[in-house]
Amino acid sequence: QVQLVESGGGLVQPGGSLRLSCAVSGIFFSARIVRWYRQAPEKQREWVALITSDGTTTYTGSVKGRFTISRDNAKNTVYLQMNSLTPEDTGVYYCNTRETWGQGTLVTVSS
To answer: What b/e readout covers 2-14, taking b as 16+ CB neighbours within 10 angstroms?
Structure first.
């Protein structure tokens, strides 16, 4: 059974940083593309970033230059380093691979 467990969310001031983690189990992790999404209050879920099996990364425009996605295949974990956070980055962050989603971790950017 595939499981994704996110962690690392919390409350941070504007301009601050957080690192989210997504621990993956039940699959051949190193071969999978993994994506981060987020859902702000009263908004639709949006794609944020992805990382391929060979480490190629892609980002949505609003986070490019501020967020960095990475993976540690030895730990079956994908990370999302988020810098220069703004209130517009507030939301629940989910990781995804194919049809499987984690439960999400809440990020709140507020002074």
So the answer is: eebebebbeebee
